[in-house]
Amino acid sequence: MRRDVFQAIADPTRRDIIHLIAHESLNLNAVAEQFDISRPAISKHIKILTECGLIVIKQQGRERYCEAKLDKLHEVSDWVEQYRKLWTQRFDALDAYLDVLQMKTIPVAKKKKNSKKK
């Protein structure tokens, strides 16, 4: 099954695994020891992360080490960025509209105060 990066980061445990090995390569046992779930469950998460290209497993002697390959996260960053730009534009337009509305209501309020004084 072909998996994508979005599927990988959708699960909090997988995000924690990525965070854990982003700083240093760890063997599978060291990764599993950090979590309160079974070793087979951790292996399944690591398999998904490997299929997505976020982790590479390297054999060093008898041990298998997980190494983070975070370049794939650029896909997520690019996708989020397009929507950040869109919403920034929309909020800027809303701010401008609210400024126009506020300018229209301020003179009316001043006129009403001035007419009461007379």
Largest sheet: 3 strands, antiparallel
Instruction: Quote the average pLDDT.
Output: 87
Unreliable residue runs: none
Q: What would the principal axes of the Cα set say about the shape? A: rod-shaped
Which architecture of the largest domain does the CATH hierarchy give at level 2? Orthogonal Bundle
Note the beta-strand portion. Answer: 5-15%
Cα distance spanning the termini: 80 Å
CATH H-level homologous superfamily name of the largest domain: Winged helix-like DNA-binding domain superfamily/Winged helix DNA-binding domain
| Alpha carbon gyration radius | 26 Å
CATH topology of the largest domain: Arc Repressor Mutant, subunit A
As an assembly, this protein is single chain
State the helicity in percent bands: 55-70%
Order of helices and strands: HHEHHEEH
How many individual domains? 2
Q: Based on DSSP secondary structure assignment, what is the total number of beta strands?
A: 3
Which class best fits the helix and strand makeup?
A: mainly alpha
Give the neighbour order of strands across the main sheet.
1-3-2
So what's the CATH class of the largest domain?
Mainly Alpha
